[in-house]
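tool_log.txt
---
The assistant was asked to compare two proteins side by side. It first ran the structure predictor on the initial sequence, then on the second. Raw inputs and outputs are pasted verbatim so the downstream comparison step can read them without reformatting.
(1)
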Amino acid sequence: MSELSNHQLRQELIPDPEGNLSDWERFAHTINGYAVMGDVAACAELANAGTASTLTELRCSLFFEARRDRHSGGFGLDEQLIRRLLREIKAKVLSGDLD
């Protein structure tokens, strides 16, 4: 899946947070959180703080979790966090809150 703007997101593109998470990483890479946040450190700070509130911030946090999972060899996966981020992303897209 290529990069998508917030306005290009549709519900069917977002993995079901209650289902199989097999596509979550692919979806997470529809945004380059490092570029959007300015650099790796800023993206990490956002994700680690757990303060993401806008659609863009939620997507950047999900992106960082995908990178964390990859670089930890699968030992950094927080499934509950991934599901929460996906739920919040879906809710934002459904409500049209695309900031």
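(2)
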Amino acid sequence: MADDKPEIKRGRGQPPKYTSPEDMQRVGDKYFEDTLAKGEPVTVTGLCIALGFTTRQALLNYEAKDEYLDTVKRLKLQCEHYVEQMAWTSRNPAMGIFCLKNFSWSDRTDLALSTPNGPLESRIEIVLKKA
């Protein structure tokens, strides 16, 4: 039985948008400068749009290239820095906290229990019994 699906020709894709990390850094710096001058929030998606990308994945693809690794990390760190500042100065930091979690930040609660004789030791035991 013959396959009726059309043949898909795979090309090499589009040529790289940036020929050097310095070019990418210049465009990113211009994005930060223009965005802050307008009083708008700095975002990773806004950075991607300014860089001319159609997806956030395109930025990650550049990050996977050794020569662009530091540049992309620096640009993302500038976005993270902005969000961190907003979390500290906002009347309601919930959005900042949410965004920082997307930058691999985490929050947790540690609970240490103690008794007059010292720390409380606890143990959980799971016992399986055949019915």
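---
observation on (2): The first strand starts at residue 114 and ends at 115. Strands lie at 114-115, 118-119.
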